[in-house]
Each structure stands twice: as C-alpha cells, then as structure tokens.
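hiii, so i know i said id send this last week but things got crazy w the move. better late than never?? heres the sequnce for the chain we talked about at the cafe, plus the structure i predicted for it. fair warning i was half asleep when i ran it
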Amino acid sequence: MGEIEELVLKTLKPTEEDEIKRKFALNNLKNLMKGLDIHVGGSFGKGTWLRGNADIDVYVYYPKALGKNELRKRFFEDINERLKGIEYTVEYADNPFIVANIDGIDFDIVPVFKVENPEEVISPADRIPFYTKYINEKLRENEKDEARLIKAFMHGVGVYGSDARTKGFSGYAAELLTVKHKSFRKILEDASNWKPQVRIELAKPKREFKDPLVIIDEVDPRRNVGASVSLQKLAIFSLASRKYLEKPDIKFFFPPKGKDDEERVEGDLAIARLELEDDVNEDMLWGQVSSSINSIKKHLKVSGYKVIDVSAWGDKKEVNIGVQLESKEQGKYYKVEGPYFYMKDEADAFIKTNKNVWVNEDGRLCATRERNGDAESIIKNSIKLKYKHKKNVEWHHNGEKVKGNAARFIRKRPIWL
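okay and structure toks below
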C-alpha cells in the first residue's frame, strides 16, 4: 500500500468511537424492533463503510407467502407499533421503505421476503442479505480496507453510485472487484486496460448481457451487478485508474471544489433552471432528466445546431440542465443528408417529403429544410418531467464569465486529468 493510500485510509477508515456510536444506535433500534426477524446489511453490515458515511440498512424479513401488498401493509403496521414517537420519512424503491433517525444515526429500514436462495427473490432487495453474507465470507479484514480505498477513489473521480443520476458503480460492485483482485492497486491495474465489453466473472453467467461492464457473482449468476455502469463512467474510471498509477495524488480521492470557480464560456451556454414544486423520488426524477437530456441533444441536432455538450446538476428542489452550443445563432435553412441513391424505398420517401433534393459527391440524397423553432424553444419543449415544475432558460454568450457549477460544466476537465 502506497503512502497516498495509507493517508486516505487513515482519513476515511472509521474510528473505534465511530463504531461504538453506530453499534449503540443499532442496538437501540433492535430493542425497539423486538419480535421482528431482522438483518443488518449495507456497507456497515459488510464492514466496508467509510467514516461519516455509514450505510446502515436494516432488513425486516416477512414470509414469501404474504405477497407484495400484504407485505407493505404488515410492514407499516409493525413500524408504527414499534417506532412510536420517532419521526421517519417514507421512500420508494421496489418496495416502500422508511428512513428513521435513532440517536443521530440514519437507518434505512426495508421490508423483504425471506427466501432460501437468491433464485427465489421477488424484489431486488430480497438478495441483499445474501450479498452481506457473501462479502463477509470472501473478504478478510485487510481486504475490506482495500474495498474502502476503491470506494473512496470511485467517489473522488465521480463514478460511485448506481442511481439514475450517477450511472456508476454500486458499493457491491466495488466490493466484488475487491473479491476478484484483492487489492486497490490490482483493481486499478486491471481497469487501466479495460475495453468494452468488460467481463468480470466470479461465477459462470446464466444469461447473456450487452452492457459495457458485466460483473457476475456467485450469489445470483442471472444478474449483472455492473448493469448500472454507463460507458461514460466506465471510461472515466479506466482513465482515472491509469492516471493515478502513473502519478498517485490525493486529489483523486479528495478533489478540491472551490465555490469561486470561474470560467469563460466557449460558444453559447443555455442553462435551463427547473424549480420542482412537488415532492420527488430522486431516482425517478433523474431518470426523467436523463431522458430530457437525450431529447435535447436529438432535437437540437436534427434542427442543425452544433451541440458541444449537455449535462445536468442540482438536487430534489432545483435541477439545472446546461446546454453548450457552438452558436445559438443559425440561418433560416439547413442542409440534411438523406439515404444513398441505391436505397430505393428510403430514397423515394426522401424525395417525396423534401422540396429541393440533390445528389452529393458521396451518392447521398440531400435537401434543404427550414429550421423549426429557435434553440431556446427546442430546449424547453424537449424537457419532459412528470413532476410539477417552473422552467426558465438563461443564456451566457461566448467570452462571458460564469461561476460555480456552470463554470465546472464549461471547463469539463476533471481536476485529476
């Protein structure tokens, strides 16, 4: 382990005091939930948690024969009976679960069906107890420190999180990489040479996957643990791994984020500010934001705009979508390239639906079309959220200075690169 890794581990590994505090809160919760069959999971249950970021998940087992509707009913009856006087919020995944604060520690309390093996699961959460057991069996204590390092590295370079917003690595995926390679450095050495499709098979898969990253474990070989990782996040992790091995630096783990970041706009920048007026499910929200980003890119390109980049930032109260164009100013008409001359049906359809048609040097049919709408209206019309919101677009033009997240969007280059 290098000097940088030792420093990171010293900073992020929980202290004995951290451990005692969380175990005390957990014990109090267990006392409140006497009579229920529970399992402690998450990174805390697996011993791979980071200081100040304990993921304490408590799973409440129910018989599979109950069915989903009865499970939810029974769960809330049990919670309301046992957690009287304790405030909690209800969150939604495959099953509703609650987040309760006990002695200053947040607990996710999740109902699951008790099954004998992972092949009997009804909802994804039913697998979690098997994951906890698997990691505790496969990783020694020193290897759990290696898992902490890879999680911290992934977080630092922006690829940690399997949610719809991040599209990166889950904690379990990071732990499985540690099961495979046993050390932080060996994970980076392997990732430095990744080319999609990347396959990491700890067991023989029971089906085929087309995702950029495929991670198969022994718990449930029917499932790809790497399915959440987008090609972009895989590429970032691979590049960051290579650069860290070339020149280790603490900034890979703890990138500085100055509030006074300032950059000059290159091209034209539109920032669509969406003020959310409803309570939202963040995974659903960011799934809709992702779809809106794809729609913005598509409709701007179809209308002839040169799109440099589109990205989003924000929280459950306000989402900002940044759209960087070469220029927001465009002529009234633009050129569209159609099918090749030998694609008979497509060529005939193109000729019928376009006015000024010609054949270019490559043998493709081309036409001129009138542009429909300006960039701002295209951006606004491409944003589709199911939640009630207010929408506003502001523009920043070439050479104009912007700050904060807008500046980081314009700069793009991560601090470690």
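btw The chain has a mean pLDDT of 93. thought thatd interest u
miss u guys!!
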